[in-house]
Amino acid sequence: MNTYATRTRNARPEPFAVQVGLGERLGLAHMDWPLTIAAVALIAFSVFTLGAATQNDIPGQPHYYLERQAIYAGLGVVGMFLLTRVDYSRFRELRVGIYTFLCASVSLVFVFGFAARGSRRAFELPFFSFQPSELGKLLLVLALAGFVIDGARRGSAVQRTVRYLCLGLAPAALVFLQPDLGTSLVYVVATLAVMYFGGVPWTHFAVIGGALVALVAVVLVVAPAAGFPLLKGYQEERLTSFLHPHEHEGGAGYQQNQSKVAIGSGQLAGRGDKATQTRLDFVPERHTDFIFAVIGERYGFMGAAFVLSLYALLFWRALRITTLSKNAYGTLVAGGIAVALLFQTFVNIGMNLGIMPITGIPLPLMSYGGSSVVATFLAIGVLQSINVQAHLSQRGRFAW
Amino acid sequence: MFARNDHLPQGSRLSLRVAVVGGVGVVLFAILFFRLWNLQILSGDKYLAEAKNNRTREFKVIAPRGDILDRNGEVLVDNRTSLALQLNAQKLPVDPVEERTELARLGSLAHMNLHKVRRAIAKGEEVAAGAPVTLRQDVGFDLIAYVEENQDEFPGVSVQRIFVRHYPDGTRAAHVLGSVGEINEEELKEARYKNLEPGDEIGQAGAEYSYDRYLRGRPGLTRIQVNALGQPTPGGQLVSKPPTPGNSLKLTIDGDVQAAGEAALAAQGLPGAFISMNIDNGQILAMGSNPTFDPTELTPPMSQQQVNELYRDPVAAPLVNRATEGAYPTGSVFKIITALAALENGVITPDQVVQDNGRIMVGNEPFQNAGGVAHGPVEMRRALQVSSDVYFYLLGFDMWKTNDLQEWAHKMGIGRPAGLDLPEEGETLLPSKAWHEQFVKEGLALEDRPWSAGDNVQLATGQGDLQTNPLQMAIAYAALGNGGKIVTPHVGLEVEDAAGRVLKEFEFKPRRKFHINPGYRTAILEGLHAAAQEGEGTAAGVFGSFPIPIAGKTGTAERRGHADQSWFAALSPYPNPRIVTVATVEEGGFGAEAAAPAVLDLLEAIYKKQASGVSSAGGAE
After folding, report:
1. What is the ipTM of this complex?
2. A322 vs A342: CA distance, rounded Å
């Protein structure tokens, strides 16, 4: 029997007078460095690209986007390091509060939010606008993972599945109504990912999958045919135009076509400052949703493939952390974050490449936008925390 | 505190789930990599071309067409600038209702109804798909200001400065000058238009057509870099190539003579034509056809009334150049050919006397002089002076079994292309035994009978199936005058650049030469001189007091279904002619009645100029 009051798994005696370095105090020693490097490299690339591509966007302020994105990057990195030091397990205890805050914040935009292009998604704060649904992605994963762990023994398997679904879909529905279709899809995917790592049976996923197919059919085909369109016209057009790009060259397909032309024209080495598609407004939203087209055109296949590799690295490290976690909560949180990142990356880049519909999902760590950048860094901070905790628990040490 | 969550995946169950997600991730990233490779490496060239095409807009700068001048440098055609209301159909609203409203609004500006606007667009698309359609030319500044102020209401509408052909003297020399028009789809495929684009203007008729390559300028090009909205971007002017204006064309036409000829014909009020040509080099001094047209009216949009008048009237047919496209019997004007053929083939000598009793019988068919007058004993000169038909009937009869008359007529250019440098040259016909037999064989003749003496007798006096025009008669008379040279008739003199420097002089070599016995030539010219200006000469009443000696022949052609057609052909000055002048007036009656006065007006214009010392007309060169 050991006499030390310890929560370590392998009850190895804790020697006295252990020298703890600054790195360990800050959690740096046990961070997942490839993950950190991938994230920082991506945001650096983002700042670099924005600086080059948006010089003429705002007259008289050639560095408008560059400066702001750099500030958001700084805030995000600081946030990531802070979270690294925090034991993520506390979020499990705070799940109800987190969930309440999530639902409240995404609801309050209906009241206090400002409208941009017919959609209320963000609060206008003195220095920047805050879009709660971006942070909400992380909050949803943290809260839902807590509910899954907590409710694991209550009710039947079906009841549990339904309960998780309801918990996940409620904020997703609120976001959908803003309306922000893309982000609500991320919520749904994150919900399913947490459930998946939480052990919901394969059969349930089969049923959910079937229901999703039926839902898509109803939304896109049956409801409009019956005269009750559920999607706004532009939403439906965006979602379906990629299937037949030539029909919509003037409308929604135009953006994607121009994006494809931009990326294709980059060829192997890119066009650098000779880029025209993304410099002369042919590609819309080039600093946000279509930033990958900018990379493709300016830096060519070499640049775009490099960025893509960074995302692959990011995803691999995130997924790896699910297996290292000291507890099931960490596994669920890491899994949810990893899948949400993968989903956003694939949908956004796929949209730029013309193989996915236009859903308005920003590219994590690349698209311009404070809420998205900071929220993504916070999510990576949570991943780091899980990694650090895993190492500490194996080493038999607490974090300070 | 930690609940043991049995159902939570652990160990190998968790590994499986992680592996599945990892596998999905690998597949998704592979898709992205492959797609990226496909777009950038495999199809990169295509997209790069598309991107380059995307960011530039080329604006064609229209080049003005060269002027057309008469031989003295007087302007016959130049350009004026006009503001045209143009519509780019591709920029119209997609929504049919909006499109309709815009077109209706536009129509009210252009004084067109909706239907007409749509038709104009459809027609424009047919001619040159993608090129802007001109709805109305010569719009006023108030309208331009209105369109520009309300640009959002009129997407695709622009006002463009264009060059429009300007004819300072209206209808003068219209048939020679021809017209211009937008190139059409078939013409675009032709080799002579190989560098042209839809919307370009080319010569469609007359000298505008023949000398198009000199008159046509080369359009300039401004290529600018634009953004997605089509707005020019700063510093984005990439290429600017100024347009090269077309060169000027100087014609052999003398504007004053031309005007005189047209006035003379117009005064008659009947359809007709005239031509005046230098007999040594084939330069046409004047050529015209009545009724005529104003080339300005050929510039779209044309009113229905204009279309009807210009294109749909088979009788007046104002667009037809009767001097070169007409097909008429000539009457006695033809007799010089019969005379030459008979003399050269030894059928008769100039002094051989023939008894003219007013009529002869050929087979069962009587042939008589005009009015049945008997001229008594006539030799060649007298026969030409009084225009004895019987004399020439007999010559025709003597040559009916041989092909001599046809051979000489053919030599002198009757019934064959003259090689005129204008696209308008009509079909003509020289009747012969071979032609007649072919004609009968094909079942086209009214009666199935062999070539007869009567046919040749008819031809000898320019009657029967003969179909020719003033141009061919002018060439035949010129050959008589110059001693056997068939000139190439032409209106093109030289090409000048904008500064008046001669870039190219056109040289038209004679098409062929043959020998004419000088004695015969003199005899015929004497007869013609007597006909025109001596005593009982058929045209002495017209030219008797004309100070310049001339040789001329009247003609009164019988045309089926028409009143007699009046002809006159003159060589001047006699006895060493330099200029041939031919006129004809449909249904003008006797040669001396209508055509001869027209020729007199032309000659007066030609020699008045010479007398006043103005270098001109080639007559005194």
Report:
1. 0.89
2. 14
